[in-house]
Amino acid sequence: MHITHSGEDDNLKRLLSFSVSAIQSNCGPFDITGETDIDNRAKELVFERTRYIYNDALEYFEDNFLSEITSLGIDIELNRMEDETTTDGGG
User: Fold this and answer.
1) SS3 for 91?
2) Could you tell me which residues come within 8 angstroms of residue 43 by beta carbon, excluding any fewer than 6 positions away?
3) Residue 36: left if φ>0, alpha if ψ -120 to 50, beta else—which one?
4) Is residue 5 within 8 Å of 36, Cβ to Cβ?
5) Confidence (pLDDT) at 7
6) Measured distance CA(28)–CA(2) in Å, rounded
7) pLDDT per position in the chain (91 positions), as tens?
8) Taking the mean position of all CA atoms in its chain, how far away is CA 34?
């Protein structure tokens, strides 16, 4: 999306917010301002989903990014399980 004016800022912020919620709902929690691999992959999906919404093509997003969505969800869950194991002292 090459938008060179600020007239759509509010709409884009709203669409980005919807996309963050949708990706977190599908994949699990992430930090949109974070710099980890998981956070960066999640941000990319948020931007891609927002691009699809903006271009009235949201119905194609999940099919086109299914492997990325699934992979991110699995990695978030594995991270969560690893953190629990580490926090619980190994078991």
Assistant:
1) coil
2) 32
3) beta
4) no
5) 74
6) 29
7) 555 667 778 899 999 999 999 999 999 999 999 999 999 999 999 999 999 999 999 999 999 999 999 999 999 999 999 988 887 665 5
8) 12
Residue among 14, 13, 51, 44 nearest 30 (CA): 44
Structure tokens given for 71: 């992979």
Give the pair of three-digit tokens for residue 73: 């969800």
* The two three-digit tokens of residue 39, written as one number: 């956070």
DSSP 10-46: HHHHHHHHHHHHHHHHHH----TT--SHHHHHHHHHH
Q: State the pLDDT at residue 90.
A: 56
Which residue type, as a one-letter code, is found at position 34? G
CA dihedral sign, ordered 30, 45, 3, 34: positive
DSSP assignment, residue 5?
Answer: S
